[in-house]
Design brief:
mainly alpha, two-stranded antiparallel sheet, 6 helices, 2 strands, 53% helix, elongated
Amino acid sequence: MNTNGVPPAPAGLVRRLDDPAAAALAELVETFEDLQTALRCCERLVTELAADGEPDAVVVEAVWATALLSYARCFSAAEEGVALNEDDLSATQTSGEALEWHRLLLQLRDHYADSVVNPRERFSVGVAQDANGTASGVAITSARQPLVDDLTVRQTGAIAYALSGLVNQRIESRQLQVFDDLKNLSKQDLDKLVPLDVAAPVAGP
C-alpha cells in the first residue's frame, strides 16, 4: 500500500474523518488487509504441506479457514459499494476458470464457517452383530475430510495476490481524492474534528 502524492500526517495531529469518502477509503484498506492475510495464510500452508512427514492437521485447518474467511469477506456487500465483486475478479485473471474457483472458495468458506456441521469429519453410529446376528455392541465410525492440497492453496494465493494489486491502486486513487477535498478546509474546520489516538512508533534498540 502506497501514499504517492499524499503527504504523511505529523504524529499527534491526526483527526478523524467521518464522511463517505473516508469511510470508503477505510473499507478499501480493510479489504487490502484481508487479501494480504489470505495471501500470507497460503504462503504458510505451502510451507506446512511441503514439510517432511504428515502435516499438522490442526495447523492446516486453522490457517486454511482463516484464509477462506479473509478472502470471502472481501466480497461482502457494503453500503459504500467499494467491496470487490466478480467483475473485479475477471479483470485481474486471464484464466476462464478463475470465476469457478472463486465461487468454490466461497462455498468452502460456508463449509468451514458452519455453526452446526463439523467441517473436518463425519460420524455415524451403528450396531455391531456377533456371529449369530445378535447385537453385540455399538460401533462408531468416522469419515475424515481430506486436508486442502497444494494446488488449491497456490491458486487461492495467486488470486489474492492479483486482487491485492487492484485494491492497492484504488486505495491510492481514493486517498488522493480524500486529501484533495481536505485542502479546502480551514484550520478552524480541521480543529473541530475529533482527534485520533495515534500510537508513537516504538524506538529501536
